[in-house]
Amino acid sequence: MRAAVVKTFGGPEAVEIVEVELPEPGAREVRIKVAASALNPVDAGVRSGAFGGAGEQVGLGWDIAGTVDAVGAATEWNAGDEVVALDYGMAEPLGAHAEYVVVPTDAVAKAPATVDAVHASTLPLNALTAAQALDRLELTPGRSLLVTGAAGAVGGYAVQLAAHQGIAVTALAREGDEELVRTLGAAHFASGGIAPASFDAVLDAAVLGEPALEWVRDGGAYVGVIPQAQPAPVRGVRTAAVEVTADGTRLAELVRLVDEGVLTLRVAETYSLEEAAKAHARQAEGGVRGRLVLVP
């Protein structure tokens, strides 16, 4: 089968399409024939060597939408099931940017019924990250939340999920993105000029760090999206950073919200698997609203 990998770290040109053996599922695993897989910023980090694997073949891709093709022992899934899944991996030989991928059964959820596979592939990594970040903030309805990078994929899901929970969301984004983030459910919009200690919590999807921490009231909470990269606590503000985990049960809840119209799935462009390097180059240019998606 074909897969996108890197063997030498670098820029978009480092991405190669190689022929590899078809992976076989073991116990509590399923093999998925990939219909679509989103490209994420973390893939650029893997490609550049930020997560290790020097001198080895490293696979790319975390998001999966497709059809179960084969199953190992002790799994509730069946061949033919249409699913989505998160393939968590930093320096594995193969990732989701491939024709087939093997994942643990507990990373899998039934695919949304209301969208196609291309759109469904944008859900797992970014929506799980947003949901798990909100869990860390422990906000209750009526509390105030600032989401930085609110027009991005993680930030956009965070705005929608928090608004759905009854949290008063302020979206921090570029001026040209105000209409977008308001359609996602932001009650308020900011493009700068935020007063210190204005919010009960900040979900820092833009990775601003200490400047964003200053916008949290004394005793509030801050959560970032890069593991172990959160700023040190100040003024009694609790700080943390989410490291996304594969969670099929939680992913199924997010799928339900897609089918109920709560979550909007945004696709910017699609590329064939052979065009993976081209997709990486487009992502590196910036300014993408929605995800770039690879279709094997």
Characterization of this structure:
With about 300 residues, the protein is α/β, with parallel strands linked by helices. The chain is about 25% helix and about 30% strand. The strands form three sheets. Strands 3, 5, 6, 7, 8, 15 and 16 form a seven-stranded mixed sheet that branches. Strands 11-10-9-12-13-14 form a six-stranded parallel sheet. Strands 2-1-4 form a three-stranded antiparallel sheet, covered by helices on one side. Strand 12, helix 6 and strand 13 (about 215-225) form a beta-alpha-beta unit. Helix 3 (about 125-135) crosses helix 4. The mean pLDDT is about 95.
In short:
The chain is an alpha/beta fold. 24% of the residues lie in helices and 30% in strands. Helix 3 crosses helix 4.
The number of domains is 2
The largest pleated sheet is described as: 7 strands, mixed
Write out the CATH superfamily name of the largest domain.
Answer: Medium-chain alcohol dehydrogenases, catalytic domain
What is the string of helix and strand elements? EEEHEEEEEHHEHEHEEHEEHEHE
Quaternary form: single chain
Radius of gyration: 19 Å
CATH architecture of the largest domain: Alpha-Beta Complex
What gross morphology would you assign?
A: globular
Strand content: 25-35%
Structural class by sheet pairing and helices = alpha/beta
Give the termini separation. 10 Å
CATH class annotation of the largest domain: Alpha Beta
